[in-house]
Specification:
Blueprint lengths: L7 E7 L3 E8 L5 E8 L9 E2 L1 H15 L1 H4 L3 E6 L5 E3 L9 E2 L7 H10 L2 H9 L8 H11 L1 H6 L2 E3 L1 H10 L3 E3 H4 L5 E2 L4 E2 L1 H7 L8 E3 L6 E2 L13 E2 L3 E2 H8 L8 E4 L3 E4 L14 E4 L5 E7 L3 H11 L13 E3 L16 E3 L7 H23 L10 E4 L6 H11 L3 E4 L4 H15 L3 H8 L4 E4 L6 H20 L5
Parallel strand pairs: 1-5, 5-14, 5-15, 9-12, 16-22, 22-23
Antiparallel strand pairs: 1-2, 2-3, 4-7, 6-8, 10-11, 13-14, 16-17, 17-19, 18-19, 20-21, 23-24
Length: about 475
C-alpha cells in the first residue's frame, strides 16, 4: 500500500493536447503518483481529435501511476469543454470529435443567435450567447455538412462525458460542463427543448445531468484500467470548473489562466447573463456560477511568434510602439472567428524582442479587457489575480500581466489544477465535503505574490486603438481578401 494518511483518489485532466492523471491523498492533498500521455489534433480551421486517443492516453497515464492508481477509492474526470463527441449504437465514435477551437461553425453560431431570439434571449435562457466554440454550433455545422454522421449518431457527449461513460457504462454529465453546450438552460437548469428541436437533436441522445456531490457510477468490469471494480466515479466537469474547484475559489476571487486558450473567471452567486457574448454564463461544479471569458490565442500563439522570430519565449525587450494582435486561430474574445494575426507600427529600429513583447501584450490585453465584465459588484477589485496555467510559470507572462493589469499577482505553487480539482471532487464523494473546501484544506493557492505596479495605460490605449481601427479587416479575415 502507498504511505498515505487517507484514502487515495484519482483526478484526471483530459485537455486539448494531452491527458494527465494524478493519484492524490484525499486527506492531505499530497500527489502520490502522476502520469501523462499526448493526443494529436488536426491543424487549420478544423480542429479534431479521435476520442479513442483520449481513452488510450488515460490508460497510459494511469499505467505510469503504477500500483497507486489501483488503490484509489474514487476517480473524477476534468476535460476540455465544448467538444462534440458523436457515438454510434455500439458506443464507438461516428467521426473524430469537433474540438472547442474548431471555428468552422462560426456561420452556424450567428444563424442560431438570429433564429432563436437574438443575443438578449440567448443570454437570458442559457446564460451565454453561443459562438463557434459552443457545442450547439458544432452540431448545427455537422447537420449541414455531414448529415450522414448525424443520422448515424445514437449518443452525443462532451469529452469528459465520453471518458466517464467508458468507466461506468452510464451516460452522464454535470452542470459545469453542460452549461457550455448552448442547449442547457441555466435559468431552469435543464435541457432546453426549443433549442434542441430547432437544431434537430433528440434529447434522448444526451447524457443525464448528475447533481453536484452525486455519484455518477462505479468502475465497471471489462476494461483495461488499473482501478478496482466498484471504485466510485464522480460527475467530473469541464476544465475551467475543475480548476476553480482545484483552487477552492470563493466568490469574487479573479483567476487568469494561461494555456492553449486564455481565460478569466470568478465564482459568483449570481447567474450571469451577458448579451454581448463576451462573458459565458457557465455553471460551476458545486451549485454556483462561473462567469468566464475565453480567448483562443494564448501561450501557443505567443510561442509561435517566438519561433518565427528565432527567439526563446522569454527573450522580450521593452520600449516599443509596435502592436501585435496574435489572432492566429481566429479569436473568440473579441469575437473575430475569421481573423488572423496583425502587426502594426513596425520601424527600422524595432527589435525582434520588442515584437515578441508586443505578442504577449496583445494576448493579455484581450483577457484583461473582459475581466471587469466577469467580476460582479461584490468582487474585490484590488485582490490579487490568481495566475494559473502553463504560462503562469513564465517570467514574461507574469510581468506582462502585472504591468497591464496594475494589480498584485499571486502564482499558486500547485500545478495541474484541473486534475487537482477533479481529485478534490472525487475526495468529496468519500468525505461528504464540498470539493472547494477540500482544496482549501489542501492549501492549493499557496504561492508567491508579486506586488502591483502602475498600470501601463499607454500600451492598453494603443492596443485598443489598433484593434478598433483594424476591426473591419479582422472581421473579413485574410482568406476573404
Amino acid at each position: 500500500m502507498s504511505a498515505a494518511e487517507g484514502p487515495l483518489v484519482v483526478g484526471v485532466d483530459t485537455s486539448t493536447q494531452s491527458t494527465k492523471a494524478l493519484v492524490v491523498d484525499a486527506s492531505t492533498g499530497q500527489v502520490v503518483a502522476s502520469g501523462q500521455a499526448a493526443h494529436t489534433v488536426t491543424s487549420g480551421a478544423g480542429r479534431e481529435s479521435d476520442p479513442r486517443q483520449w481513452w488510450d492516453a488515460l490508460c497510459e497515464a494511469l499505467r505510469q501511476c503504477g500500483d497507486a492508481a489501483h488503490e484509489a477509492a474514487a476517480v473524477s474526470i476534468g476535460g476540455q469543454q465544448h467538444g462534440l463527441v458523436t457515438l454510434d449504437a455500439h458506443g464507438e465514435p461516428v467521426r473524430p470529435a469537433l474540438l472547442w477551437n474548431d471555428v468552422r461553425s462560426a456561420p452556424q453560431a450567428r444563424r442560431l443567435v438570429e433564429e432563436l431570439g437574438g443575443p438578449d434571449a440567448w443570454a437570458e435562457r442559457t446564460g451565454s450567447v453561443p459562438g463557434a466554440s459552443f457545442t450547439v454550433s458544432k452540431w448545427a455545422w455537422l447537420a449541414e455538412h455531414e448529415p450522414d454522421a448525424v443520422r448515424a449518431t445514437r449518443a452525443v457527449r462532451l469529452p469528459h462525458d465520453y471518458l466517464t461513460e467508458r468507466l461506468t457504462g452510464l451516460g452522464t454529465t454535470d452542470r459545469g460542463d453542460v452549461s457550455g453546450t448552448g442547449w442547457w438552460a441555466s435559468a431552469t437548469e435543464s435541457y432546453d427543448e426549443e433549442t434542441l428541436a430547432h437544431v434537430g437533436l433528440d434529447p434522448a441522445l444526451l447524457p443525464r445531468v448528475v447533481r453536484p456531490g452525486e455519484v455518477a457510477g462505479t468502475v465497471r468490469d471489462g476494461h483495461d484500467l488499473p482501478f478496482s471494480k466498484g471504485a466510485l466515479v464522480a460527475p467530473g466537469t469541464g476544465d475551467n470548473a475543475a480548476a476553480a474547484l482545484g483552487l477552492g475559489l470563493r466568490p469574487g476571487t479573479p483567476v487568469l489562466s494561461l494555456g492553449t486558450s486564455g481565460t478569466v473567471y470568478a465564482v459568483s452567486k449570481r447567474r450571469p447573463t451577458d448579451p454581448t457574448g463576451t462573458v459565458a454564463g457557465f455553471a460551476d461544479a458545486h451549485g454556483d456560477w462561473l462567469p468566464l471569458a475565453c480567448t483562443l490565442n494564448c501561450t501557443l500563439a505567443v510561442d509561435r511568434v517566438a519561433a518565427l522570430l528565432g527567439l526563446d519565449r522569454e527573450a522580450v525587450e521593452p520600449g516599443t510602439s509596435v502592436t501585435l494582435l496574435p489572432y492566429l486561430d481566429g479569436e473568440r474574445t473579441p469575437n473575430l472567428p475569421h481573423a488572423s494575426g496583425l502587426l502594426h507600427g513596425l520601424r527600422h529600429d524595432t527589435t525582434a524582442g520588442q515584437v515578441l513583447q508586443a505578442a504577449y501584450d496583445g494576448a493579455v490585453h484581450s483577457l484583461l479587457g473582459a475581466l471587469d465584465l466577469v467580476l460582479d459588484e461584490d468582487a474585490d477589485r484590488s485582490a490579487p489575480l490568481l495566475l494559473i496555467g502553463g504560462g503562469a510559470r513564465g517570467t514574461a507572462w507574469q510581468e506582462t500581466v502585472r504591468r497591464l493589469s496594475g494589480r498584485p499577482v499571486q502564482i499558486p505553487e500547485a500545478k495541474e489544477l484541473v486534475a487537482l480539482g477533479a481529485a478534490a471532487q472525487a475526495a468529496g464523494l468519500l468525505t461528504g465535503e464540498d470539493p472547494a473546501a477540500v482544496a482549501r484544506r489542501w492549501n492549493t493557492t499557496e504561492g508567491r505574490v508579486l506586488d502591483a505596479v502602475e498600470r501601463d495605460e499607454e500600451a492598453l490605449s494603443r492596443i485598443a486603438g489598433v484593434l478598433s481601427d483594424a476591426s473591419p479587416l479582422l472581421e473579413r479575415g485574410a482568406d476573404s481578401l
